[in-house]
Amino acid sequence: MRLVLLSGGSGKRLWPLSNDARSKQFLKVLKDEEGNKVSMVQRVWGQLEETGLADNSIIATSTSQVDMIKTQLGQGVHIVTEPERRDTFPAIALAAVYLHSVQGCSLEEVVGMLPVDPYVENQFFDRIHDLEDALLKSGAELALMGVTPTYPSAKYGYIIPKEDTDEHYLTVDYFKEKPTEKQAEALIEKNALWNCGVFAFRLGYIIDLLEAKGYPTDYEKLLKSYHLLAKNSFDYEVVEKAQHIISLSYDGYWKDLGTWNTLTEEMGVEITGKGILGKGIENSYIVNELDIPVTLLGLNDVVVAASPDGILVTDKDSSTKVKEYVDGLNGRPMYEERRWGWYRVLEYTKYAEGNQVLIKRLGINAGKNFSYQMHYKRSEVWTIVKGEGILVFNDQLRHVRAGDVIHIPLASKHTLRATTDMEIIEVQTGSELIEEDIYRATDEWDEIEAICKVKLTINQ
């Protein structure tokens, strides 16, 4: 059995800490058994390793999340990257084609899909193993995992089974999305399960479906025509049209940490970052990524979350509505983690004359480097404030350290490799300060050094 972890969401439900580049699953607000801060994706990947599933797992994600995944899970994790975000059906189709045409999986292979952020015990993953047997024995097109409800929640979708069903699995009758609490009570009386977003299928089922729709089933070809795939959910394109769906029940602990309300219940601490809670306050939390303190007085059942992207103050029950208020905030992410380290935006100004200025503080981890790149719409000035490293400028190398100031004009090739942990202040100035104005030659330091050696040989 192969597993695909879906990690393509934009992360607005935990704004302002999460954004398009740093979705909720990357926030280090949980704790492992040793008390270290970990993210949801680190916790889940660790559980996959403990239950022997990691070696047969891949992660399907968007381009903006690749660096974050590799930073938190390591360079060796297998990733399938969407060229653009197009909902869950295209993402799952691309992952299925990758398994078939790149990894050579048989059409009879059972593939399980699951969110990258469930908060569960290890026995949840043991139960996933059972999906394979149930799918093959039943002859169903899809096998789902459903969680036995502990209360009539209006936040989750429900799987409603037929009355006459097999003792080993349930035959699905229909689905109900986010009912009222009264409706949920009636559904639970019918043995309905919470839909936790975990399901499995034979690989050939999806490959056949793609061929019937006229889509290529070669990975490279599908990448090139990815923009032609229907921008729909997997539920709409596949689940609603399937004739035979079964479900297994899971009776253990499960929680969706998709809102501040549920996440704070599992954080283990009331204050993260600089903060002060007044005496006698109950069930309130401060999560602060800023360097200024946050003080909360006289308010129970409140979450205050602060980051460079913004500040949220909400009572816990209303925190589920954050996404609908901030969906229109599509500005530049103010903080990101990258494969080489991190950056934080200090200031961004767009002048009436048309020129723009962006000031960042960047941290480069020892042994890491930027890509070898150039820009045509901006110049840069780097001021090194911590550490030392190697600068490559137009195919020439030189040593740099704290106190050095480096000017990078338009169309100049440049990169920086940290020999110790480094921090720099970067000032970008130009007509358009966008990601598309980065032209990368290579990310690999060995290749960058080879380019410089060739240049040196030619000059000699």
Describe the structure.
By secondary structure, the protein is of the alpha+beta class. The chain folds into three domains: 2-256, Alpha-Beta Complex (Spore Coat Polysaccharide Biosynthesis Protein SpsA, Chain A); 263-326, no CATH class; 340-459, Jelly Rolls. A six-stranded antiparallel beta sheet has the order 20-21-22-29-24-27. Strands 8-11-9-10-12 form a five-stranded mixed β-barrel. The protein has a four-stranded mixed beta sheet with strand order 14-16-18-19. The protein starts with a strand and ends with a helix.
Q: What is the count of β-strands?
A: 30
CATH third-tier fold name of the largest domain: Spore Coat Polysaccharide Biosynthesis Protein SpsA, Chain A
Identify the strand order in the major beta sheet.
20-21-22-29-24-27
Summarize model confidence as the mean pLDDT.
Answer: 90
Structural class: alpha+beta
CATH class of the largest domain: Alpha Beta
Proportion of helical residues: 10-25%
Number of domains: 3
Helix-strand blueprint:
Blueprint: E1 2-7, E2 30-31, E3 37-38, H1 40-50, E4 57-62, H2 66-73, E5 79-82, H3 88-101, E6 110-115, E7 118-120, H4 123-138, E8 142-147, E9 158-161, E10 170-176, H5 181-189, E11 193-202, H6 203-212, H7 219-224, H8 234-237, E12 245-250, E13 254-256, H9 260-264, E14 271-272, E15 275-277, E16 285-288, E17 294-296, E18 302-307, E19 310-315, H10 322-326, E20 335-338, E21 341-350, E22 356-364, E23 372-374, E24 378-386, E25 388-393, E26 396-401, E27 405-408, E28 414-418, E29 422-430, E30 439-442, H11 445-459
Parallel strand pairs: 1-4, 1-6, 4-5, 8-12, 14-16, 15-17, 16-18
Antiparallel strand pairs: 2-3, 6-11, 7-13, 8-11, 9-10, 9-11, 10-12, 18-19, 20-21, 21-22, 22-29, 23-30, 24-27, 24-29, 25-26, 25-28
Helix pairs in contact: 3-6
